[in-house]
Design brief:
Bound molecules: guanosine-5'-monophosphate
EC number: 2.7.4.8
Strand content: 15-25%
GO cellular component, one term: cytosol
Family: Belongs to the guanylate kinase family.
Number of domains: 2
Strand order of the largest sheet: 2-7-1-8-9
Keywords: ATP-binding, Cytoplasm, Kinase, Nucleotide-binding, Transferase
Oligomer: single chain
CATH architecture of the largest domain: 3-Layer(aba) Sandwich
Organism: Campylobacter hyointestinalis subsp. hyointestinalis
Order of helices and strands: EHEEEHEEHEHEHHEHH
CATH class of the largest domain: Alpha Beta
CATH topology of the largest domain: Rossmann fold
Helix content: 40-55%
Length: 203
């Protein structure tokens, strides 16, 4: 029996974190892969929960020591997924969730393609994203412009994903994500099928 991976990508500010925290409140047993990053902590974030905040030196050491399943440079900062806890969670048959960018998605696909379900989350347009980033108030105008540029680059990869959520209405978006997640719970590979058949025959 092996676990599944659910990847969420999409522009920073599209609402991925809000959707994911709601999913994790509702369902037990999800393993959310906490990435490491060299970017500084944002107001409202918690070290060790939102990210592991580490220095660039530490990050580079991690790369050299093969500690990352994938890593990427996004908005001039490094972000990476730790290999060991993810492998352990998969071995335990869990659904592992990654909130990673398109580069990370490509790398994860190479390694775990068969067990990945991928979702791209975005706003209805560029203007809406800019508005949300400004409202969040955590980034300078320069960083916001950089994020908008990256968002446009990432949008070009939408067709590589299994599902698309255009997050105009949080309630609807959550129901869509919930439906995708629920479908993973009933995948045949989650079951010990021989056992299911034996039980069925012997009762
Ligand atoms: P933010 O700075 O807004 O938290 O994240 C910026 C971008 O980095 C987002 O697109 C997010 O999905 C991505 N990201 C976060 N963690 C990782 C990771 O471990 N690997 C990769 N490749 N991207 C990540």
């Amino acid at each position: 029996m092996s676990g599944q991976i659910l990847i969420l990508s999409g522009p920073s500010g599209s609402g991925k974190s809000t959707l994911l925290s709601r999913l994790m409140k509702e369902f037990d047993g999800i393993y959310f892969s906490i990435s490491s990053t060299t970017r500084s902590i944002r107001e409202g974030e918690i070290a060790g929960v939102s990210y592991h905040y580490i220095s660039e030196d530490e990050f580079k050491r991690g790369i050299d020591e093969g500690k990352f399943l994938e890593w990427a440079q996004v908005h001039k900062n490094y972000y990476g997924t730790s290999l060991e806890p993810v492998e352990a969670a998969l071995k335990a048959g869990k659904i592992v969730i990654f909130d990673i960018d398109v580069q990370g998605f490509h790398l994860a696909q190479k390694k775990y393609g068969e067990i990945i379900t991928s979702v791209f989350v975005t706003t209805k347009n560029r203007y809406e994203l800019k508005k949300r980033l400004k409202l969040r108030g955590t980034d300078s105008d320069e960083v916001i412009e950089n994020r908008l540029f990256n968002a446009a680059t990432e949008m070009a990869h939408i067709s590589e994903y299994d599902y698309l959520i255009i997050n105009e209405n949080l309630e609807k978006s959550y129901l869509d994500l919930r439906a995708i997640f629920s479908s993973l719970l009933v995948k045949v590979e989650n079951y010990a099928v021989n056992q299911v058949i034996d039980d069925w025959c012997n009762k």
